[in-house]
């Protein structure tokens, strides 16, 4: 998603903004730009493509000035061209914007009638002209900005600078996050604290409807009613350390390798190894779980698939009635929420627009809301009644890997906690489940040693056009996740199916050219999944089996197999995630795609 940086500074800010934008690259973007005030006049540079294109442009034609805004754009309205890139500007004002202004057509018509000429196809340019119009009617820049944002509908965050007003920076938040950074002689605006971390650790977060007016280092925040508002200044945990790949060729593979450590951190938060048992949860959570008439689980993409694995765990262990849906559907289908219901949302970024909206809706409808979230200061973390953090650390690769396994780790612990609270498992069972979870980091580390063999299989997969994944029980969401991972970074068409569904249609796709990746742990579902695998092989299907030693021995001859460590079947989703991630990674490498920033994708999806 788009990234925003603004600085009211005491030095030439363009190079500094460029560096801060690099820290937002992980969000995904397809053009970028910076505007500064040079002796009071707005000057800007914009370039389609990656930040090095903008960097080269700035090298040839540097921007001067101590006040500036920068932006990475993920195209929504209009192609990623220079004309559509931000900042959008008139002679009076330059703006950068993240999100969607829904009423831009009406506003453009009104402004066109007043003589404004638009140069881009974006909704964002509207805001620049609206502010300009209001200033031409006599309003001061900050008053014009406040009045303008009050007229915009949609979900967005925005930052602006104004001709002849050095040191003045105005920001606004509605629906998309915006952080304010504080220092002795400068102040900052950024899409997240991570972008601001090299400048300051002192940040506050704008709330819905807030407008911030920065004059030099002086920061004033106004709420949606225009009243001065106090927003707590926090010391952020975001690291100022340069985000580096630690010797790996991509963030994605670095993050795959971090999994033993970060899954271990996440488990350590929820499990007491001395028991081993789950650390007792707060009374609020325990009561909610005991009383829960139903659990609704939601999220988007990979986070949703983690939730889907959770469904199997909550049903089996805690005997809870569980409903799952993707957030973009859940929020719009007017679901019937029960009394004493609990709604659980899974999100890495904590800013996904659909997930946040579904959380708000379920909360308004009386559900106790719980968030499994990786960014502690995010909107979802702040708005949920109860937060279950994951400790994956910043995930930079657009394709989620370590966040997924940490979500699984947190959900597994939470399912055990629910079962314990509802007395649906014995103390002995709790110990066995916790002990097996605590072994997961070791098994993941052990499995990672097979990376060279998986690279070769990934290279084979790279040669094909379509791939099918299948699994049963908790391996079904893994099949969905495997297919998503492959398609998003290698652009190979892939679909995941419940193994039992193959013969209800998808089996028609089977021929020698379509590999089928079968995820079949040696568990209660093994025989059934292997029967489905045989049906596929009988029709010429080329099977790559992911299973443990016993499973591979029993399954007989297949095209290829990946042996995962033998574990308690409870934790197999955590282990089987690793081969599907590595297969996708090496298929993408073989195809030469942009693994960390695949085309068309954004890391944090703050638009619907
Ligand atoms: C896929 C991927 C996405 C995200 C989804 C939700 O690799 O990363 O499918 O899982 O956009 O994002 P979060 O978890 O930030 O809510």
What this model shows, in words?
- The chain has 21 helices and 26 strands.
- The protein is an alpha/beta fold and 608 residues long.
- The chain has 2 domains: 3-235, Glutamine Phosphoribosylpyrophosphate, subunit 1, domain 1; 251-591, 3-Layer(aba) Sandwich (Rossmann fold).
- An 8-stranded antiparallel sheet has the order 3-2-4-1-10-9-11-14. Strands 5-6-7-8-12-13 form a 6-stranded antiparallel sheet, with helices on one face.
- Strand 15 (271-272) and strand 16 (277-278) form a beta hairpin.
- Helix 14 packs antiparallel against helix 15 (427-438) and helix 18 packs parallel to helix 21.
- The longest helix has 20 residues, at 402-421.
- It is globular.
- The relative contact order is 0.09.
- Bound molecules: fructose -6-phosphate.
- Fructose -6-phosphate binds next to helix 10 and helix 18.
- Residues 299-303, 347-349, 352, 355, 399-400, 484, 488, 604-605 line the site of fructose -6-phosphate (F6R).
Protein traits:
about 600 residues; alpha/beta; Glutamine Phosphoribosylpyrophosphate, subunit 1, domain 1; Rossmann fold; 2 domains; 8-stranded antiparallel β-sheet; 6-stranded antiparallel β-sheet; 21 helices; globular; binds fructose -6-phosphate
């Amino acid at each position: 998603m788009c990234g925003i940086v603004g600085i009211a500074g005491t030095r030439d800010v363009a190079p500094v903004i460029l560096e801060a934008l690099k820290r937002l690259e992980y969000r995904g973007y397809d053009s970028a730009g910076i505007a500064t005030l040079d002796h009071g006049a707005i000057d800007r540079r914009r370039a389609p493509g990656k930040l090095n294109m903008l960097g080269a442009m700035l090298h040839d034609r540097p921007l001067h000035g101590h006040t500036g805004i920068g932006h990475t754009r993920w195209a929504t309205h209009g192609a990623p061209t220079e004309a559509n890139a931000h900042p959008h500007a008139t002679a009076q004002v330059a703006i950068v914007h993240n999100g969607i202004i829904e009423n831009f057509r009406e506003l453009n018509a009104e402004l066109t009638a007043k003589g404004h000429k638009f140069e881009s196809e974006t909704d964002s340019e509207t805001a620049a002209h609206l502010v300009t119009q209001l200033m031409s009617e006599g309003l001061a820049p900050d008053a014009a900005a406040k009045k303008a944002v009050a007229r915009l509908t949609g979900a967005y965050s925005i930052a602006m600078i104004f001709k002849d007003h050095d040191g003045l920076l105005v920001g606004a938040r509605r629906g998309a996050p915006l952080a304010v950074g504080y220092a002795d002689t400068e102040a900052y605006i950024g899409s997240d604290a991570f972008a601001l971390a090299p400048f300051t650790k002192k940040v506050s977060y704008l709330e819905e409807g807030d407008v911030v007016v920065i004059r030099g280092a002086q920061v004033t925040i106004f709420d949606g009613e225009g009243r001065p508002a106090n927003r707590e200044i926090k010391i952020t945990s975001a690291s100022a350390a340069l985000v580096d790949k630690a010797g790996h060729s991509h963030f994605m593979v670095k993050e795959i390798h971090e999994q033993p450590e970060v899954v271990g951190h996440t488990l350590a938060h929820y499990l007491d190894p001395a028991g081993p048992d789950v650390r007792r949860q707060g009374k609020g959570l325990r009561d909610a779980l005991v009383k829960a008439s139903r659990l609704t689980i939601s999220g988007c993409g990979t986070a949703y698939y983690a939730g889907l694995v959770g469904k199997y765990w909550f049903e089996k262990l805690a005997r809870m009635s569980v409903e799952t849906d993707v957030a973009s559907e859940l929020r719009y289908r007017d679901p019937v929420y029960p009394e004493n219901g609990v709604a659980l949302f899974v999100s890495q970024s904590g800013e996904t627009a659909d997930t946040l909206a579904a959380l708000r809706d379920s909360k308004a409808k009386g559900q106790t809301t719980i968030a499994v979230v990786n960014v502690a200061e995010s909107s979802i973390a702040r708005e949920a009644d109860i937060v279950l953090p994951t400790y994956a650390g910043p995930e930079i690769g657009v394709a989620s890997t370590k966040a997924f396994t940490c979500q699984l780790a947190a959900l597994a612990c939470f399912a055990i906690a629910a079962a314990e609270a509802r007395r649906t498992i014995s103390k002995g069972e709790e110990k066995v489940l916790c002990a097996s979870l605590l072994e997961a980091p070791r098994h993941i580390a052990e499995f990672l040693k097979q990376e060279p063999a998986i690279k070769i299989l990934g290279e084979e997969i790279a040669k094909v056009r379509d791939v099918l994944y299948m699994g049963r029980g908790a391996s079904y969401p893994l099949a969905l996740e495997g297919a998503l991972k492959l398609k998003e970074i290698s652009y190979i068409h892939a679909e995941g199916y419940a193994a039992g569904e193959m013969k209800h249609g998808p089996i028609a796709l089977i021929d020698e050219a379509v590999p089928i990746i079968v995820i079949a742990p040696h568990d209660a579902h093994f025989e059934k999944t292997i029967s489905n695998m045989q049906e596929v092989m009988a029709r010429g299907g080329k099977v790559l089996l992911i299973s443990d030693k016993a499973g591979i021995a029993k399954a007989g001859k297949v095209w290829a197999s990946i042996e995962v460590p033998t574990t308690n079947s409870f934790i197999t989703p955590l282990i089987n995630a690793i081969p599907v991630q590595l297969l996708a990674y090496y298929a993408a490498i073989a195809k030469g795609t942009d693994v960390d920033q695949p085309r068309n994708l954004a890391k944090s999806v703050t638009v619907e």
